[in-house]
Each structure stands twice: as structure tokens, then as C-alpha cells.
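Render this sequence as a predicted structure.
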Amino acid sequence: MSETHVFEKKSFRKAFGPSADINDLARTCVCLANARGGTLQIGIEDKQELPPADQRIDQEAANLLIKTIGGRAVNVGLADPLIITSPNGGQYLQLWVHPSLSTIATTADGRVYMRLGEQCRPVVGDDLLRLAGEKSGFQWELHTPQRIRLEELSRAEVSFFIEKIRAAPTNKVSQFVKSKSTPEILLHYNMLREDGLATNLGVLWLGTPHQRARLRYGLMVQYLVYDEQERRIRKETWLDHHLNPLQLLDDVMSRGVELHYYHEVPEGLYRRQVRRYPEAVLRELLANAFAHRLYTVATDIAIHVYPDRLEVESPGQLPLGVTPTTILHERVRRNQALMETFQATGLMEGEGSGYDLIYEKLSRDAKPLPEVDDSYNNLRVTIYAQAPNPTALALLDTLARYYEFRQREIITLGIIAQQGHISATDLAQALQLRQEERLRTWLGRLLEWEIVLARGVKKSTEYLVNPKAYAAANLDVKPSLKTLEPHRLRALIEEDLRAYPNSLMADIHRRLGELSEAEIRREVYQMVADGRILPQGKATKNRRYLLP
């Protein structure tokens, strides 16, 4: 099993013997505790699935290790220590690290660490203040300041929530949960405590308007529309606490008439309507704003609608461990219990799939990807209303009829189709990948099916849609140097040198200016290596080229 943000493996040598590094184990436990908790297995090497067959763990040594770690990790709870014998006969020690929900876990010398993705990193400066602020917000859902009992909640809201849970598909809510009684279901979703008191989460979903209004900071929304000069021309508000989160999202979608505008895209003899903002994208953005906002900050969620874009703004920055350039890959929850109710009622997608869905829908409609900004105390997500590229949209529609694309493939293909031609570096950046080598998992079968072509090697690799794909889709695409296949580009360079012999590289690029100089240089160097053209002069900058 590979390491994740909730699972870590450590070598036997880290815990036992003369080279033991207990401080490192303590740091690992602090990292897990400050994130979501997790499992620590001691005695298995990083790239191995099983411990050595002859490895044995002494019970007394294990007890002493746990005690020592406990003395070097403050506010860290360790539970369920087990010595497990693997199928090959080797033994390893497994620990469960409890999440530190309301306090910050530290090492004995006062240092703070947190699990970010698969790495354990120190938390300092502004990030430490953010972590402290979020710790106070982690448990907002489970507080019971109003001391309201089940019978005092709105019966209509309780019935609404229970009906949604029992009607949910089994991949959202198990049959075991559906078979529970009403109080047991509410207890399961942390809406009630065992003593029968309603939590803040319970009041948010099930309370009367008066009870919701008494929440410290409830769920309130403002909808603001602007004209071409960015002057506000209309405002809608949801500040009366009459609606539960699901009803509130539906009402915003219904009353926000600008959200339903569409473009007309030519499609043969007809015109096709494409929404400016796909409905699934809007719902996911709003659900994320509801679920991930800080409920300890007195700021409303704001939806700003401009003629060319839409901005969704919610209180609080991204959860610690997520940045605007990693949001497609990192998985960190802020309001755990709240998100579980959102997923169970169908208000949002499953864990970590929200931005995957947003990227997929926007790419599928040949529209720009979202922009995420958390520079200040609010998180702002911007999506653009511009009309889709008709050629890219028609190509994606045609290919989708014949190929069963995976989600990553359609995202990647959408980006390449809109650009027509993109470098590996730019594609990796668009997909928020740290290493270009990981592109192959996103390209998937696109290269194998020859829908996408690659030219160049390593960092100079570029990707483009195969011109044959446009032809197969009966698209009358104007020829472009950007989509020219390599052998045709080389023939074009030969024609250029036949007309203008003894040319500098800059001269060739100027005459074929639609392509970058790097592309021209790569093909010229390859043609020199193949003997198809001859270089004249030693200095690279002043070297001239001609046909043999």
C-alpha cells in the first residue's frame, strides 16, 4: 500500500536499535495529528508491502516505544497499538494517530508540523496562524451553545433531511444507515449528540429560522450583478435563515437568472445552445463555498456576476495544505461533518472529486479552466463566460461518440483542443503537475489512439490534436503551422531554403513566424543530423543553412 495523507510507513531501524530516530517518529505523529489523523506502520520499508520475513517485534520494546513517542509529541493521541504478523511471517507495529481537532499538536521542543499530501512539512509564520484559526473552526459543527433538543427542531426540516437520506443511492448512503431510526440517523451525521442536544450542524439543517439566526455565523448568501462598467445593477440576498443548505442552493440557482444565459454555437445548418456556466459547475462551486467556508467568520458568501465572468467568494482561505496551484490534486476537508451531510443528500460530489468535476465539465465544453485566488482572507473562484471554440467543441462532441474517455483524458484533450498546440511544460502547469513525467497518466490512451500527437523529446515535447481527427470529424479546419505534422513542417523548411538559400535561423523563423523559434530550431537541427540541409559557419548564432 502506497503512502497517502493518512498513511505512513517507517523502517524498523527508525524505531529500534542503535540507529533509532524517535524524534522523527514523533514528528510524523504530529504531522498526522494536525491533519486528519491516520495510520503509522513501523517495520515496513517505504517501497515494500511486507516486512522482512525474519523480522520480529518485541512487545516490551513496542510498549516502551509508544511511551517514548508520547513524551516527545504533545497533544497527540496514539491508539490501537498492534503487533501484526504478515503473510510472509514477518512482524510490524501498527499505530492509529488520532486527529488533533481542537488543539495544535507539537513536538516536545515546540515545533509544529503538518501532513501536506504525502509529505511532512513544518508550519511557520502565517501558516501557523491559519492552523490556529482553523483548529477553532474544525469543531464548529459539533458545538451545542443553544442547547436545543430534537423535539424543538423543525419537524418539516427533520422529515426533509430523513427523506433525502433514505432516498439516496447506496453509493452515497449505505442500506445499514438508511435502516436506522430518525434519532439514530441524526446521531450518525453528528446533528445530535448522545445526550439529545442538537449541534450547530443540526441547527443549520433542521432548525427553525429563529434558531438558525442565533447561530454564531450562519449560512448567508448575496448575489450581485454588474454592468459593463462594473456598476452594481441588481442585488439578491438570502439573509433570513428560512432555508436549509440544499434548499438555499436550489433557490440561488433558480433566482439567479444570469446563471442560465447561454451562447449559440453554429453546428452545421443549426445552432446549438451552450450555457455560459455549466449547471454542474455552478452547483459544485456553490456547494464547495458552503462546505469549505469558515463558520467562525462573520462574512457572507458572495456571488458576483459580471458580463464576462462569475466570481464566487467565500470567507476563509483554502484549507492549510491546499494552494491554488494544487487544488486539483490535494484532498483536505475543513468541515468534515458538514461535508458528509452534503454528500449524503447529493448536494455535492464525493470527497476530493469537486474540482475534478469542474475541470471536466469546463474542458468538455471547450471553456477556460477556473482561476482560484486566496491571497486575502477570502477565497475567490472565477469562471469565464466566453463563448467556446466552435471547432474544439465540435471535435470533442464527435470523439465522445466513438470513445469512452476517462475523466483525466477528457480534461487533457479539452485543454489541447482549445490551444491546438501546447508544450509539455504548459500542459503540466495547466494540470497542476509538479513533474512533466506524470503527464502520461493524464494523457492516458490519447497517444495510443493517435487522437493526440507528440513531437519533440523531454522538455521540448509538444502535444497537438492529430489533423486526421479533424478530418474524421468532418471539420473544415484551416491549415495551420501550429498543427502541422513534423514531416510536413520539414518539407516546408526545405521549400523555404530553396527560395532563400544561406538563411539564418532567425530568417527562417521570421518567414514561418506562426511557430515558435524553439520548434523551428528543433526541426532544423534534426534535418542537419539527417543530412537534409547543410550548416555553414561555426558560430551557432551566425550559422546559415542551405540545401545540399
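Summary. The longest helix spans residues 59-72. The chain has four domains: 7-123, 126-385, 390-480, 484-546.
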